[in-house]
């Protein structure tokens, strides 16, 4: 008899993940992250988009250099309620 191997998501040793917050929570977090990025030093004139899904901030757009990209990610991490950040901001092409 072959015992079925549990899938990676079927762990008996870790608790269930946190349930998603209320639907308005993601909208509030996206607004808060965007507000802080706009107010951040060196990020005011950058084209950075913010979306939030299940308390995960997803950053997109274009930054002129690595420092601006990292700063956007750091600002998003500092927002209370954000559990993860996906920094998909691309670097602008050199001319």
TrEMBL record:
BON domain ranges (all copies): 25-93
Origin superkingdom: Bacteria
Region Disordered, residue ranges: 1-24
Protein name as annotated: Transporter
Organism: Micromonospora wenchangensis
